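USER:
I wish I could look at a protein chain and see how it folds. I am handing you a single protein, as its sequence and its fold in token form. As I understand it, each token names a local backbone shape. I hope you can help me see how the letters and the tokens relate. The protein I mean follows directly.
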Amino acid sequence: MQEKLDQWINWVEYDELREGRHNAPHNILGLHDFGKGQIFTVYRPEAKAVTVTDMRGNHPTELEEVEPGSGFFGKYVETRKKLKAPYLLNIKYGEDDVVVTADPYCFAPQISSLDLYLFAEGKHYQIFDKLGAHPMEINGVKGTYFAVWAPHARAVSVVGNFNMWDGRLHPMRTLEVSGVYELFIPGVEPWAVYKYQILTRTDEILMKADPYANCAELRPDNASVVADLRGFRWTDRKWMTSRRKETRDSRRKEPMAIYEVHPGSWRKKDDGTEDGFYNYRELAVELAAYVKEMGYTHVELMGIAEHPFDGSWGYQVTGYYAPTRRYGSPEDFMYFVDYMHSQGISVILDWVPAHFPKDAHGLAQFDGQALYEHPDKRRGEHPHWGTLIFNYKKKEVENFLLANGLFWLKKFHVDGLRVDAVASMLYLDYGKNDGEWLPNEKGGNENFDAIHLFQHMNQVFEKEEPGTLVIAEESTAWAGVTSPAQMGGLGFLFKWNMGWMNDFLEYMHMDPLFRGPNHGRLTFSLQYAYSENFIQVLSHDEVVHGKGSMINKMPGELDAKFANLRTAYGFMYGHPGKKLLFMGQEFAQFREWSEARSLDWDLLGEERNHQMQDYVKALNKLYQEYDALYTNDCDPIGFEWISCENADMSVVTFVRRGATAKKQLLFLCNFTPVTREDMLFGVPCPGNYKEILSSDEERFGGTGIVNPKVLTAKQESCDGREYSIRMTLPPLSVTVYEYDYKEK
């Protein structure tokens, strides 16, 4: 071996490299100036010979193997005209087996010291552009830049189908004291499959998927896949420009009729494939047409982030930055969102920053120690869910989650995020028994780190992507969920109204005979209806695990079930708050929902089910036509009880008010199967009252008791009102009247 090369080599690093323990391979590999010449070094186990040339293949220099069989080749070259990076390696494994590649170890890092500082502070809001796998061109060489955060690792390598999954070939270097490892690998193109091989401090070798990967293999395979997110041609510029002009107040005044969808089971192909999944592009066309026909304004998608187990419905995520491959590629999902926007439909994603599964290829014990999860099991595990809880105190983890939300809003133009299981994040003792949780520093059960995350997150989302919707699935009475973070609230725009849902479904489940004594379950929600900005939800959680579908929650024989359900939906649409209904419940699917099968679309051949679908369609049409049903959802002026104390009859009446005195609405709701003939009802003002919708219309499957004539309010006191109308109230029904407000 040459004397100069022998002088230059650090033999400790040489041993570490060959043992797979080196976390700074660029120190000993690549091109290095030395004295009056240059040192070239290459580590390629199993190679027979290595030759260096310039990028045109000229000026070859054959390297020498330092020790026989070592796979470490090097040479000192003294020359006036030094070779500049990049350059080519011609690696010979056999007579006809030669690999030609630019040297991965001659490229500068693409992550700056400022990037690392901001990441460590939890404030690198586009860290997804730095970490992960990114196809790019550096100094004229095309390849993929890999970067991963693994601060506890002894060494990290990129392995994949481009290097025979051999961890010796592409060890990565760590940057400063950040724990971030990086490497640019020439020639690696989109759709390459890879993982990170991590050597832990206990000498265990882990094979981990990339936490920041933009694509993954289809389960049960679980490696990451290189994806290029730069090529899609968006057509929704006008939509996005308009969205960014929305204010917090304007968003609260807009109609939101949300159709909650699990893409894999909404509709399946009968094409003989095992899953029958529609591709994102196919789904976009069919789903948009249906959503428009039904009159919904938004779709909320379950299970889009990559997850290993179908039965988790997407709520146990392993690929936070990757749309699931079940339905296609990242570009296919971009098409889905873009197409929805072209049809005037907003897209909301379920987002899960509360917990993650323990799958070996995922985030759990990522670098051999608790990294993304809290190290103390009393803070780091959900004992009843079998999942791990993020360590919200760690700034890099906070950055991972916060940037992930922005990733979907920016890269995929998603219009909003419904944040799952917020209560489990806010309370340290959520779902835990005594001894299973650790109090905060003040001895309480509030998770201060999660509170900070929500406040930080919602302020950043509002600044970076104004006009988006951030919705909390929060099931407790935590105060200020939708209050601005600047005022001490959590900063969400909306909150799911879980209290109303539980009380209302319990009320509707009762035989009408027993509803009178439980009247408070129907009316109590209006005591707190304006404490938060609410969405009234009948979601997937209510039609699984033995709870029964919506139609089968209703009491009575079949006709009574349908009448009860029409009444329930009518009251829901009249109640203040935005609306959400899970797929299949709009046509009264009888079976509970299962992710493994399609909705029972054949039920639309049955008259009752088709009439229920028509009824929900009519409710959505009414909802969008009358701003009384949405403009003042978050303002007490938008709702007023006329009568809410008639428990014996289980009858309530109320008004909804819009932006003007015109086209206000009067709701009359009868929760018993008794027809109330020639009944007097108080009204808010004199004038004419026109029936515009009744759940008892024959076209919806009702008995056909309607009030077709315009009613003129008489000066006859009722329900504490000076004026009243006399009409027939159908059994188990909601009747809606339009009126214009007039001064008395």
Observations:
- The first strand starts at residue 30 and ends at 34.
